Amino acid sequence: MLWSRAWKALALVAGLAPTSDAITYSPLKPPSYPLAVRSPYLSAWIPGNEVASISNNNAQFWAGNKLIWSVIARVDGVAYNLFGVAVPPSGTQSATVTAATYTSTHSTFTLTAGSREFTLDFFSPVSPKNYLRQSLPFSYLTVTLAAGDASSVQIYSDIDASWTGQTSDSSWSYSTSGSTGVFQIEAVGTATYSQNSDGQALWGSAVYATRPANSSSLSTASGPSLAVRKTFVNSGKLTGNHADWISTGVVGFAHDLGATAAESTVTFAIGHVREQSINFFDQAQTGYYRATYSDTVDAVVHFLDDYDDANAESTQFDDLIQDTGTSSHGSNYSDILALSVRQVYGGIEVTIPNDSLDTSDTRAFIKEISSDGNINTVDVIYAAFPIFYILSPEIIKLLIAPVFEYMGTSAYTKSYAVHEIGANYPNATGHPSDGEEMPIEESGNVIFLTYAYQAATGNTDLATTYSVQLKQYADYLYENGLYPASQLSLNDALGELANQTNLAVKAAVGLATYGALVGQSNYTTAGKEFADKIWTDRLGTDEDGTRFLIQYGITPWFLVYNHYPDLLFGLNAFPDEAYIVTAEFYPTVRSEAGVPLDGSIGWGQTNWQSFVAATVSGDTRDLLISDLHTYVSNGLNSAPFCDRYWVEDSGSYSAGQEYSFRARPTLGSHFALAALSAGNTWSS
């Protein structure tokens, strides 16, 4: 939503809802909390500024549209709305939020309802090297009743067809497996591989499941939302009737914990399942997990069975992210990393062929969420790669191999690397004739990604398999990289420009990287010669060598992020002086809320600020990390971590407000600094 500056100022003066002052936010209050974030189609959030009234505010899909997901608890016969009850049933009260916390895998909210305290723990596992666990398209919600005075307590939760992407015509079903109850909701009359205007999948099924916990008893119902909720509010249980789908309907569970003073928990699993998940050149791909659990009910039963092990792993994982961030650059940096993790891994899917279910033929696919919806965009993989380099370098191979596969077919005839393998996720059907072309950008990126995988794993299989293509792209950089023709770069907002310095830097570092990849010093030498001309001979800088320019001889400066692989891989293509001088320059052009991407615009991008933070040191590094931390905690924003934001006032926007993008998996770039010192940290 576009706010006027006056409205924003009024909102800041007015403050949040009265209850917000009593809430403890740890480690900070982010723009949006991840709730269930496991794939581009299971991506539920709650804006940070709505947490004070979370009992009455709905979850949101990453695009901002509402998802119906509610939790109500009864304590000694009085019903309290805990989460997502936008229209409270008569006779109910709103619980009071006292704390909100996030880690890299959990978002946790503590509420007081009458004499008892409840915790809502939204847990989206991130298991970088366990493809079975990582590929399961489900997330956990655990509701914990804290120990207290003896009370009669019941817990209710429901969802509706908003999770299917179509609320005009859907169907639902209920089944059981042992003690586990499973609801499935699916849109009717929709096409495989289709999306709605908000980017939700229109095929497949939304899944909601639970089972009795401790000594609780479980009841179920489906039907009109007001009627189903009112039944629970009045009696603490549901009827067991499963009416046919209606547009105002929900599927609901009720747990009766009985009279208890002890701590008690109930866990729900929410998900979105698509048997045919990716269209890879007319070869349907499906989730990796289906090699073991091909039936949806079996898969969600396993997911609930796996809770203890997944949660134990998440504790180790959260500690790892915290320690990695703190040791790299302090607690502010670890706050940023923890908030970035689920967004990255929630933007990818690990798949196998749907016909063979052969796990030796594993691929991964990434969606360019919110910016244009492409599939396996090479520069998006490049932006994200630092997190994979640290946590799961095999994912780099799984993401880039489908790109190489496509470029090796007769359908792709260009001498440079492709931009993506399909305009619209999940359809990997080839680069469209009118699609974006980034010849130098993507040719350099595929070389960087191949070497990152090889450097992190010690495996040479990717470079060996695609050696002919890699040489072709390295030769393209050599022949075209020093004086780039008019073309797009990663900052495609600039349009097509000739002699872009950042592209020449990419060519120089790309050549040096290719030399290291294949052990051929002539390419390394060529890369250093390019770098010498760009820097030492002032081809890409001002006359005094104080800054890099957007274009050769053109005044505006540019944030040079393509230096990063030079330092990460220890190539020494550019001299130390280039990094020292730029570190001195960037603070002089900082705007109110951060360093812009270049001297001609009023916005910055956290991806490339993070790459640059890894190439500089001292006060400049401190400044870049501090600006990013301030941006993510300033209370002005509500979208899932937007990686582009205004660094100065601009029309209806103010410095520190998000700009255009949301929920993109490019936040792996925030790990650029950590990758320099941490290396491959997740070894188990």
**What is the count of structural domains?**
2
Strand order of the largest sheet: 1-9-10-11-12-19-16-15-14
Give the termini distance in whole angstroms: 43 Å
Number of helices: 18
- Largest sheet data: 9 strands, mixed
| Average pLDDT taken over every residue | 95
Instruction: Give the low-confidence spans.
Output: 1-20
**Coarse structural class:** alpha+beta
Percent strand equals: 15-25%
CATH-level-2 architecture of the largest domain: Alpha/alpha barrel
C-alpha Rg (nearest Å): 26 Å
Characterize this entry briefly.
The chain is α+β, with helices and mostly antiparallel strands and 684 residues long. It is built from 18 helices and 26 strands.
Model description:
This protein is α+β, with helices and mostly antiparallel strands. It has two domains: 31-312, Beta-galactosidase, Chain A, domain 5, CATH 2.70.98; 362-678, Glycosyltransferase, CATH 1.50.10.10. The protein is built from 18 helices and 26 strands. It has a nine-stranded mixed beta sheet with strand order 1-9-10-11-12-19-16-15-14, covered by helices on one side. Strand 14 and strand 15 (180-187) form a beta hairpin. Helix 5 packs across helix 18 and helix 7 runs antiparallel to helix 8. The protein starts with a helix and ends in a 6-residue tail after the last helix. Mean pLDDT is 95; it is low at 1-20. Residues 105-323 form the Glutaminase A N-terminal domain. Residues 330-673 form the Glutaminase A central domain. This is Glutaminase. Residues 1-22 form the signal peptide. Keywords: Signal.
